[in-house]
Structures are given as C-alpha cells and as structure tokens.
C-alpha cells in the first residue's frame, strides 16, 4: 500500500546513519534545510541501549508521532551498528505506521565523492571501495545521471550494490570510502525527501542491513 501524502502540509523526516565508529540521527521539517537538526556520537560499550536513550533525547515522542518518513543507512560500515540501527528504524516504522526506505553508506557519500574528485561527463561511472582487514575490498559502482548545472545538482544512481571483490581493476575509476557524519546525514535527508511520495507503509519489512561478509572478517 502506497503511503498517500497528498495534501499533507507538514511532513517530518527522520534519518538514522552509522559509520565505522559513530552513529547519528537527522531530522527535517517540510524539506526545509533550515530546520535540520543533528545528533552524532562515537560508539561506546553499550550501543544497543544507548541508541534508544539518545534517540529519546534527540526527538520528543510528540514529534516522533509526526514523522512521515524514515530512512536508514544499511552499510557497509560497522556490522553491529548497521544491524542495530536497521532494527531500530524497522521497529519505529512499524510502530508509528510510517514508510521506511534505505540507502547504502556508499550511495550516501557518492555525490560528495564525485564532486570532490570532479568526476565529469567523460567518466560517468566510478566505484567506491573499502579495504578489508584481510584480503580484498568491498566496493559498489555508481553512475552520474545528471551533470547539468553545479555539483550540488548531481544525480547519482547505484548500479552495483557494495559487494566483495578481490582486486581493483586499473581501467576503472575507484575512490576510497570517506565517511563524513553530518554531511552524510544531510545527504540522507535529501535522498529521503526525494523518495517521499514513493514510500510504502509496509516497506520496513524489506529493509535489511548490508554487509557482504561475515562480522568476523
């Protein structure tokens, strides 16, 4: 069932994101960036309980009930954090009957990386990678769909979901993953609001953490 937002004047977006060593929340009203509110914290020894505690501090129950859309990053990042924030996002989405969608951490940083490295019309496709502690890499592929205007208007599509690869091919364009807490939360809010009208209230069931290897690797 598609979530019908026609006629809604006030909508609120909540996003939840994690990196290799931190987690954060973002909140926006009516797609107005001036209303943006953020919380970012480094991991500690009890991430499971602290997620709930910090979320309760970040957003009131009253405002949480107003949320029309939730988006979550699903990794690749710290495996335990990715799993926990996805569980949290799914639980909230189900409880308040609110659409939930998800984006890989690499897709969230893709526009920033493309802009920083001046990826242009001649090299529309590029990879983002993360080196594994043992052998190989996790990498996803991205394609620039729109390069008109300035870099802020870049539209980038994820063509290959991050997966394990043995080596980086020299003929292709590769950039190392670069997590930026607040910048990634802003981009996640932007991506979430672009998908607002395509949201589905049952979509929480399809959102799962992305981690191409086992947690012990």
Automatic annotation (TrEMBL):
The keyword Hydrolase applies. The keyword Acetylation does not apply. Signal peptide: none annotated. One of its GO terms (molecular function) is peptidase activity. Keywords: Hydrolase, Protease. It comes from the Bacteria. GO terms for biological process: proteolysis. InterPro entries: ATPase_NBD. This is Inactive metal-dependent protease.
